[in-house]
Amino acid sequence: MTRITSQFGYRTEASEVVAGHDLSGQTVMVTGAASGLGVETARALASIGARVVLPVRNIERGITSAEDILLTNPGSKVEVMELDLASLASVRDFADAFLASHDSLDILINNAAVMATPQGATSDGFELQFGTNHLGHFELFRELLPALRENGGARVVALSSIGHRRSNVIFDDPNFERREYEKWSAYGQSKTACSLFALGVTQRFANEGIFANAVHPGGIITGLQKSLSFDEQQAMGWFDAEGNINERFKTVSQGASTSLWAAVGPELSGVGGLYLEDCNESVVFDEANPWVGYFPYAVDPDGADQLWDLSESLIASI
Length: 318
Hints:
Rossmann fold, globular, 9 helices
């Protein structure tokens, strides 16, 4: 198949991607919109008429984000609801509340994430990063299926990361029960899972008009780095000796652009199962250009099936 590209690129701003689009009458949901990429993604969607739902763990911060969006987009429709992706009970309660008050959902953007955390577990006992970044969103999608189906289909966006290269999903030990915990491997596994989830959604629901794509937003300094010390970030080249951000990093607006392209880009109508970055379909990793590209296991159909089955089995009794 021909690689799907757009007129946009690495430094494209969020406002450029949504310019000319009209989502009036549509409902969109952006998880993790209490800060960072989520806020900018939600802001751009609100600016083109969408009714934007912000599921957040911290209601006060979510309200602050909504007020900020309303300041820049007076009269827009923004709704804050409580959701803790590290609790399947919270996911189900949220979905029940949403479905009770909303008939449909046109765009779901799985933006929320934790990164490189100390070893920990969700309230259901899953490794924290895999449980939050993947399993919470997996169950959210399943619970919201009636609304996603309502208008004849929907777009789903799953935020992955270049960090997926750190690890494939270790299907026989996703929760680090038999191997030593390593925070970057755990993050990489969770982000590979996000990419495989997008493929899994498309494989199962494309015939119902539901398509999902994975997005690598690029390097952006946000609250996602809160588990890392400045020294760690400096050692990885994110900051120089004077504390200046590496010039390769994007602004938050630029980081939101690929998620927005996945949500509204006409090139992606009826298209799913792709790994996107810099507002284009990505390419397989090549050492000659190491800053872009995905590892093949992140878009492997068999891996997507295996992950779907594993995810269902893990949460079946909870």
